[in-house]
Amino acid sequence: MTRVPDMDSSENGEDINGVVERGGDPDGSSGQKETSTADMLRIKQQMSNQCFEMEVHLNAGKHRRSCSTSEAERDFSDQISELERVKTLQFNQMLALHRMQMWHAMEEKIKTNDPEADALKVVNERCMAHCCRIKQIQQETRVLQDEITELQKKRLEMKRLTHEKMKEMEDLMSRKEHPDTEKYKAALEKGQANLEKYKKMSIMAQNVLRGILLACKINWLDDPKLRDVAMTLEEFPITD
Amino acid sequence: MSRLNPFAKLPGLNTASVLLVENEEHFQQSLAEALVKETSVTVSVRLAKSFPLPVENDESRPRIDLVVFIINLTSELSFQSAEASLKYLEPGYFLGKVCFMVTNARSSSVPAERLDAVRRLAASLYCPLLFAEDQTQQGVTNAAERLLTILKVAAGFVPFTSSLYLSNLTRSTLPPDIDQPSFD
Questions:
Q1: Which InterPro entries did the record assign (chain B) (predicted)?
Q2: pTM: predicted TM-score of the whole model, two decimal places
Q3: Which of A36, A91, A195, A223 measures 20 to 30 Å from A178, CA to CA?
Q4: What CA–CA distance (Å, rounded) separates A183 from A196?
């Protein structure tokens, strides 16, 4: 087993670079066995691939360095992401290449005027019609979507206004009694105090007048003016 | 415990050897028949139920280019047997020479966790995960075709590619929402 890689790794070194030039060499082998030249080349290619793999595995153990597990993990994930990046790049480029190839093939096909090309043209027309329709519909969708957004905005505005008005109303309702009742109360009390004062004054005056009438024994029934005055004295009760 | 070593023997000329490991020993037959129909290379198919492989065959067994674990999702034993067999392989195999093939993934009796577990296993080992349909002839042919593509690279028949290169492209990755409940 140790002999094989040594022998083959040198052959491998030449192979990777010179596999094209070597094509002319095994000419005489077609007469020797049942395998043709192409088969021989293929087998040789296969063997060189296998040897390359073995060489890789052998070399893998040589570049060891000791590092912590976390560092190894980090390196590993870095390299994995680099690999992924290159993979996606390659994939996208292949897609672009395939697209170009397809378009070129379709162009070539359409230029020739066979029935297949006609079918292709028909399909093409249909695709174009569909695309136009799609654009139209997308436009309409956009317009409708805008309208919907406008309506929603309006509704939101309405809600907000209603909310504000409700708050204002509540404020007013709770606030209205207070200032009015306060002013009202003050005025009421003042008025009532005044009323009491004047009431007392008039009662006192009436009592005095009554006293005078009784004391002087004035006949007030006959005099109409005096009678009116004496009648009003009865209205207020005698206090104290 | 003797492990299977990918580089212990010399490679065969114009030959590709594949080892199909399946616990039920059911799909591997039809798959083997489809695989040997390939004409451009000589495909040698070995069948096994599980590891460790019988010691008496060690001498006659050729160098195995690709080990395929066939897991039937309807049985838990299948998955466990495949998992247990993994430790009998040298680490050199996991650089592109191991492949997982899953059958019956569409069956409704399969719990979703099993498929997730297989996915996690394949992703942690950086191996490709293939889904195969074993009930119809067309399904078997398709599965054989896909296996042949990987096998040819592993045996060195594709120029400028090795199985390690290919494994970068065919590596199965976990979907980011694998831990969230699915919609079925």
A1: Centromere_Cenp-M, P-loop_NTPase
A2: 0.59
A3: A195
A4: 20
